[in-house]
Amino acid sequence: MLRIKKWAGLCLGVLLFCATAIAQVTTGQVSGTVADSTGAVIPGATVTLRNVETGITRTVQTDAAGVYKAPQLSLGMYEITAESAGFQTIVRTGIEMTVGRQAVVDFAMQVGAVAEVITVTGEAPLLETTNATVADLVTENQMRELPLNGRSFTDLTAIQPGVVTDLGIPSGVFQGGGRMVIGGARPQQSLYLLDGTDIASPYSNVAPVSVMNQTLGVDTIREFTVIQNNYGAQYGRAIGGIVNAVTRSGTNEIHGSLFEFLRNEKLDARNYFDDPNEKIPPFKRNQFGGTIGGPIVKDNTFYFFSYEGLQQVFGTTDAFGNVLSNETRLGQITGCPSGMSTCTKEQRIISKTVTVNPDIRPIINLIPLAPEGQLYRNDGIQEYNGTRKQPGREHYYMFRIDQRLSDNDSLFGRWTSDYSSKELPDAQFLPNLTGPTGTHTSTDDDGFYSYLTVEWTRIMSPSVLNVIRAGFARN
Q1: Residue 236: left (phi > 0), alpha (psi -120 to 50), or beta?
Q2: N or C: which end of the chain has fewer CB within 10 A?
Q3: How far apart are CA 352 and CA 303, in angstroms?
Q4: Bridge partners (DSSP) listed for residue 3
Q5: Model-level pTM greater than 0.85?
């Protein structure tokens, strides 16, 4: 029994240590000094921090050195009030908490009655003076307003210095977000966090992407940071960059949105391999969905829900190879004049006539017809340069709920799910072709990932705070 108690104590200690280590990942912090007009510090002053969006407040006291600290603050706009007997109350408004920010907000109080209130409007200094971490913030406005082809939010890391994308790595190797190099490290050496939990794909250790090669959910992300170096040990294992995203939550006001984005081939340029006499290969992408968030119980319980759908038909001129010539299919074996390896339809010759066995015709019918104008080769072969279509679809869901249990306890849970599928032309019956052929045979590529995060935050004292976070991931 004693051994069991020791192991239980050890596990609890590790859990508390881990929770402390990751406490700064998804939130912000405000600290500062409260002093009088002469610069003398004021111990025991009361500092109240109120989230304007949710109404949730946090109260802390200054220590003997006049210093206060409020860690683990949820993201949003804050109003900070400093009070002390014999001094006028000061209210600072317009203080924005962003992910990982450690803002310094100092107060210089004037002698007077507590009932007298001085309101100061203005943001805290943006210069980070509490640590040497090199990080760049991608804000909510940037995610909503910047053009984003495909609406994969991880692509916005490319707007930061030190991030290189589009390395020419085949999409089947790392896919989507995995083809990003941050700070010169290999793609799979970066870390991807969502609400403090690791969402990297276990297959390739990179950002999760669907079979449509997207990481949807840009409307569910409040903001994210790209941390490049000098980050703390709480992030673990990464030696490249860290993409640290935090999802949106509901507020005291009901907000929602509906959207649809359409892209097609009408304004696309012609591919190098496209036949100039034919239309540009078909391409149509519809992305649609919406969000809604608000209060269940004002100042206590909030919800946020989002759905995004994607329907796409993508045509590519990438089916190259050799097929039976149209004449050979009928039993007239074609060839080229002596000394020529390729020739036009006008130059081609019929070298032999054979009878096509009826039993073989069903297999011949699986082979696509050579497009008009394709060059002929010897031995009954004609070049093939065709277009294949890749229809695909995707469904993305996110639901989050935040609960204020008491003045000292808060809880949130977030569930994310994504299902995608894509049809690919299949060349398994055409061994002479070097690529997909656009035949009626095809293979389905399906993908699914789901993430669940639950977090409980407890304020144990004005100077001690504990966070317990649990996550589940399935790819």
Answers
A1: left
A2: N
A3: 75
A4: none
A5: no
